[in-house]
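hey so i finally got around to running the thing on that chain from the lab meeting. sorry it took forever, my laptop kept dying and i had to restart like 3 times. anyway pasting the input first so we r on the same page abt which one it is
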Amino acid sequence: MLKNVILFLILSLGIFSSGCVSIYNPATGRNELYFIDEKTEISIGNNVAARIIEDNEIVQDKSLQFYIENIGNKLKKVSDRTNLEYKFYIVDDDQLNAFAVPGGHVFLNKGLIDTATKDELAFVMAHEIGHICARHSVKKMQTALGLNFLLSVALRDPNYQAVNKTINLVYNVVALGYSRKDELLADSLGVKYSKKAGFNPEASFSLLEKLKKEEGNANYTLVFLRSHPLPDERIKNIQKTLNNETVSKLNSP
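ok and heres what got predicted. didnt touch it at all, straight out
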């Protein structure tokens, strides 16, 4: 019995490995291993976005939609995943929140749009696009569902419910936020993308200061501030990124 189990796991690992792809991710600057390919990521993202739209009131204001799409279109052109079809939504909520879903979906609360300047909003949107480009949700999916995916592929189980489990997982990631490391990287990418798109990246400082004021408000549960890095740490990280960007520009031919 034990011999059969070991043999099964070895065969499973072989099947699993054949579906893995190692690619260079320019957003992180590293070679990374993925067994959830881009097509699957987009499919999952579409399903998660549909559930969010179903669970929330989406603002149908053509002028506001044009406003955020104009910013978003400039940002996506300078992002590290220009091939994705990005979509931007406005959630009818007064809280100063924003979040991203795999595959190119970015949700912005109306309260944030009403409060932030254009450059501040550009930073937030670039930050969320940064999460997508760095594939942060995909990595969380792989970590949480790796063994399940392995067994489903090995067993060829037609009734396997991985998609539903994955949708629930991503939904929870959206609600709980990312790790300290992921958020700091998204901030750095937010500065990089917003600057390349022609926006003022220093607006990130005033935006974080605004969010700090809401941090102690019991009526606000900010996804954008719910992660481990404190706002002051994020401000310091952004300043470091801006300094590095300046040095890089000065050293370029």
